[in-house]
Structure formats: structure tokens, C-alpha cells
Amino acid sequence: MLLYEDKNKRNNIIIDIINEGLKNGCLCIYASVDIDNSKSISLIDNLSSRIINYEKNIHNENLKFINFKPYYEFALKGDLTLFEELKSELEYTLYKRLSEGKKDKILIFSDAACTLSENRHFKECIDLEKWSQDVHSDWIRNNKDITIVCPHPKYIFKEDSLQDIKNKLSSFHDNTINIENEYSLQYFNNLITKNRNFANLVNYEEVIKTMEEIKYNFMDEHKNIINTYYSIFSKHLDEMIYHNLIIQRLKKNILIYIVT
Question: Taking the model in full, what pTM does it have?
Fold first, then answer.
């Protein structure tokens, strides 16, 4: 799940990730509801001018655009027929690419669920995301390297009353990337470059949180160890000082006794 605040920034990030995917031999698909509206020409023009080897990748079927407006409208009615058909098409495309000697990896950006949540159709959004997660789990079991990246507007879920919905949507995704976090994005891009299995991407924020907990626990544990040793040696030191005082007093008393 790709969380964003600004839609233009979201599109810019998607372009960057598409470029990384193309460099690594993936078929990249941009499936957007916006492709259907009056801004679609300027949207595609903007994308085409920034995507590496745009014409060549289109010609070689390494890059595709899908008008997702009909899919959105079907999902709005609770009908996922078009998505089932797309699933079959993607699986066939994966098989075809493999037979042609191409990389058998597909990365698809889909904003149907995003548009549903943006328009506050949360039930339909949850149903679609659950279906997508079930499909993705099936792909993993059958070694089909197809990854769906779903952007979601972070600002929608700032209301306290929508936290349960946000958590439910997050549970349907293997990873969550906040595009407002530059380190999270860099980590994501590094994984694309170094590890071509997108399904293995991890939640950066969870990693950072875990590392911070480990560091805190480490320091806390060692602080306790240090305090324990301090307590032990402090006690021994007190005993040594006490015994030394006793010895000094004994020596003094013996000296006095001898003199007298």
C-alpha cells in the first residue's frame, strides 16, 4: 500500500518506481481511473515524457496503460467480473513473457481501490482489497511473480473514526510505504534495484520501529547489567573500605599497646 498526501507527488513517485521496474526487466502496468477523464491525454503525455525508452517499452510490451474507469464502476456495484478477467489476462501474459524469454515479472499500479476510498466507498474498497490480497496469495503459492501496488490517500484516514478501516485495508497488504518519508522511498527503490522479487518487500516503518525497539531493549538491558555490576562492585568496595578501616584501627591500637 502506497500512502500519499498529494496526488501529483504520488504520480511522480509511481513514474520513478515504473522506471526502476523497467530497468529490472519487469512488465509495468499503470491502471488508472484518471486515464478515462478529460485530463487523460495530459496525464499520459506527462508520463511518456518521463518514462525511460517510452516508445520502445510500449512497442516491446514492457509497458501498458489500462483505463480503469470501467473496473471502478463495476467494483462500485460489488461486481468484480472485470478484475477476474484481468487476473486471467495477467497470468496468461506472464506465461507468454516466459515463453518469449522475457522476465516473468509484472508490476501493476492500480488506483481503483484508491478512488473508492477517496470517494468514501469504504465497503466496496475493502471488498476489492480483500479480493486482491486473496489473488496475490494465490500467485505467491503458484510462483507467479505479479505484484499490485495500491496507492491510498493518507489524508482520508486522519479521522479517528476511520482508523479501523485504515487498519483493515493495511492488513490486506504485505507492505506499506509512506511516500512522504524519503527514507522509506529510498529503501523501497533500493529493494527494487537489488531484489527483483517485489513480494519480498518489507514495511520500512516496521523495520525502523523494530530496530528502535531492539536498540532501546539493548540499552535498557545493558543499563541493567551495568547497574547490577555497579551494585555488586559498590558493595565489594564498601566492604573493602570497611575492612581497611578496621585493619587501620587494629594497627593503631596495636601500636598504642606496644608503646605503652
Answer: 0.68
